């Protein structure tokens, strides 16, 4: 059995046998209580008696950014033994941290994406800082705060000042006691600034420093460290931290990294096939490749575990929505045109958290986030597509930072440009327009509405689709033609109407298909009318010409039919289509303009995909497939989503 001596900064002494790479290893831990002389004597006493000595928390080299400075005592201790190798984890730490971040990100996709990272500290954690910086939107260093108790002010701890500050920082620390460099849990004595910790989503570095210097409240924080004990878990849990990630492999079989990089390196030293091989990363690489491990990802709060997260983007349909927002009520005293034009340039804003969604079938819980652009449809149309794409990309980054793995595009954002294709290509998060479920919900709503009016045989009716060449209108037309066989397609794009007519005739040979650029001529003949345009306020049909008893399903947002128009024909049923009830005690946390617990179908599709765990680009572009509509309707039934009650203007 291989034997390891671990000298650490505390005072307890233990012996444990662990299994690693199919071998048993005895780890004898002795605390030196921060006494350098005792550490020297222990090294001399066990020199030649064990296979490796691990100096836990006693680095021989301090590194921060590109700066490197030898620690006076650490360097002396590393050279104290004459027979047994003495290591402190430096050679393997950076590599395992980088590899650990990759593995953790694979196990929990998006766990670090766009997060605010605070290194606590950055000293001796270059690998971790580099790996996290590649995945995050912003990284800062708490070293000035924890080592020198500096107050928070601009520039302190920022990457821009890192190279300038790193050298002087390490010079100040090269003769410092190890307990200052590697702080242990306890009272900090001098309180540290809380602002950097409050700013961060992720605290990464040493568990001792985090426990000692972070504020008492760590709600919804993710903590990333080399290793942690059950005591550490309990402390973080009590302080409200959400997730703990340990970077080092587990030696106890519980998938929690309990041992530091110093111990892992000492074990690799002891297991070297060639005992005379130099202590370099290359010597360890083959052994490291044999380690079968994924960094432990522990959810510390039961309420946070097992929740699939999504985000959804909305925007004001007109200027009145801006005036109603609690932060912008004062804008009603300004000219509407000025407010609308100015608001369009605002960055996306977080609105609310959507809670309570749960599948009755699988028990899967979901949580969502509402994000809003400030541009109305008119403003989006007046500006280039790139204008909206850029704001959707910013929304995607907000969504990732919140932990969402799929983002839905609501209302006009789903039809701008190429209907989500460019955004999906440019964003790291999965994207859906939600239009597949919008189509399914529209058709089911139309069916229910017509049947409520006493129609038994839908195949004998006639249906009109206004906006038939759009992404929603075209797939509605194709599916309705298979059920009703007599369809009228209306669009302002005659060339695409011809193409769609040919497609429907090839798919449904028995269907009668008429095409027109204006609806008026055919309105008196149609039993069902589906409007799915992007007219935002312009009149698309003359409701006075509709057949008595006709049903109009308005899918458009903003609506194609306004209340004043509907009042002209009380004998025509106008319903706002595409509204869904998400299972569970759903709370949107914000007034989305619908009755309580009622969702737009495009939002519901995003929630449904999260509930199913389908974190992939789903409904994109203008060519929605019949297969996608059928699949999303199957998932709709599987997770017991329901259509909201038929509704006409509230």
Outline the structure in words:
The N and C termini lie far apart (76 Å). Helix 17 links the parallel strand 17 and strand 18. This protein is an alpha/beta fold. The strands form six sheets. The protein has a six-stranded mixed sheet. The model has no long low-confidence stretch (mean pLDDT 91). Helix 18 (435-452) crosses helix 23. 35% of the residues lie in helices and 21% in strands. It is built from 23 helices and 28 strands. The chain has four domains: 2-89; 91-257 and 291-304, Rossmann fold, CATH 3.40.50; 307-436 and 585-621, no CATH class; 454-580, Rossmann fold.
Secondary structure blueprint with pairings:
Blueprint: E1 2-8, E2 13-20, E3 23-31, H1 36-46, E4 52-55, E5 61-64, E6 67-70, H2 72-78, E7 86-87, H3 90-107, E8 116-120, H4 126-133, E9 138-141, H5 143-148, H6 159-173, H7 178-181, H8 195-199, E10 202-205, H9 207-213, E11 222-225, H10 230-238, E12 243-246, H11 261-270, H12 281-289, E13 296-299, E14 307-314, H13 319-324, H14 336-343, E15 349-358, E16 365-372, H15 377-382, H16 385-401, E17 406-409, H17 421-426, E18 430-432, H18 435-452, E19 463-466, H19 471-484, E20 486-490, H20 494-507, E21 512-516, E22 528-531, E23 551-554, H21 563-567, E24 573-576, E25 579-581, E26 584-587, E27 598-600, H22 601-612, H23 626-638, E28 642-643
Parallel strand pairs: 1-3, 1-4, 4-7, 8-9, 8-10, 10-11, 11-12, 14-16, 14-17, 17-18, 19-20, 19-22, 20-21, 22-23, 23-24
Antiparallel strand pairs: 2-3, 5-6, 12-13, 15-16, 15-26, 25-27, 25-28
